[in-house]
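anyone seen this seq b4? input:
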Amino acid sequence: MNLYFRFIWLFLWRIGHCKKIGFIDSSRINYRVLPLDCDINLHLTNSRYPAFFDLARTYLIAEIGLMKPFLKNKWFPIVNAAEFTYIRDIKPFEKFTIETKIVGWDEKYFYIEHRILTERGLHCIAHVRGVFMCRGKQVPIETLITAAGYTNGAPEMPAEVIKWKQFLQLKKQRNI
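predicted toks r here
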């Protein structure tokens, strides 16, 4: 339930006061682990990470200047795949920062990296592959890039994302 409040706070306050960043720059948003975010092991529960990443991607969309086109055109993001590497736990009431950035794209998908950091260091790295939809159809990658005002080519994807992309293709081929 508290993520609904965080989502409302994100839309009502934070998005209206966010800075503008470049299309492939890192977005940073801060949170604190509240008691309802914790599991019986008294740390941030694994199921909260994807929800926080949803909030961080929404903030990224606002910071790169795409929130108005998203709302006007009724575009909405869909996560196709995600992978998480948990490094260390985050304790109750601990502050953390989520760094989010677009690390690349291909003809169909955007690839986004999330990193969760505290004063104690790196806690989680996640990669998300997604598309943007409108009225049941995918919004072309070029349309989104143009709407953001980005004119350079795609950045070189990190090696781990390339391997993950190959792994996802293999999974798809073996399970058809």
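Residues 31 and 74 are 28 Å apart (CA to CA). The first helix runs from residue 2 to 14. kinda curious what u guys think
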